[in-house]
Amino acid sequence: MQVIPVPCLSDNYAYIVIENGRAAVVDPSQGDPVLRAIDQAKVKLTEIWLTHHHWDHIGGIEALMEECPIEHVRGSQYDSDHERIPRQTDALSDGDTFEFGGAAVDIMEIPGHTLGAIAFVTSGNLFSGDTLFIAGCGRVFEGTMEMMSKSLDKLRALPPSTQLWCGHEYTVNNLRFAKTIEPGNAEVERALQEAVATREAGQFTVPGQLDRELATNPFLRFDDPAVASGRDPVASFTAIRTAKDSF
Ligand SMILES: [Zn+2]
Among 8, 76, 80, 239, which residue has the fewest nearby CB atoms (within 10 Å)? Predict the structure, then answer.
């Protein structure tokens, strides 16, 4: 399976996923950059996968429908029920699996950022949208803090080698924040230096890898004694997320 990150807008990522000649795009906020990327990769785009309904993840749907032989526009059951993803054809729920180019794609419901948020998991790759970022997590807009912490708890149980493809390039800022939560965490400092160098070289920080996230991401470490310092898990998560909102 090949994954090609496509930078869109100011800091969004769409991803082209290629398996056995089949191509899908995850979260196309725009049409043009995605069309250029599939042209370059010489693939035919037949599927669109949406992690959630926000405009900076779905804005390219109409343009891609016009230019490509799209067979499936896949999003969550919740977003289908609320008719907030245009042209959606498939409504997905927790535990659903579909086949793509011979590979299985598993769906996890991960509400919190929005109530319809889902992750696509396939061949060791996690497309997490705005729920889990490298060294961070999305704002809690529609769900509760407890709901978001449970969603992140589900994601961190995936295999440690899982490649993390997230919705935005926020890594450097997230690691700067992580340092304020765990000033003594050497892994955070190392990851920050690497991320700064990567961005200065004009490269992407995606994909992350889950084992490193477990060691550096405060939103996966909220119940670690070093981070929680005596608070219960939800209180700890809430305190960290609230601090990040104004960082
Ligand atoms: Zn969002």
Answer: 239
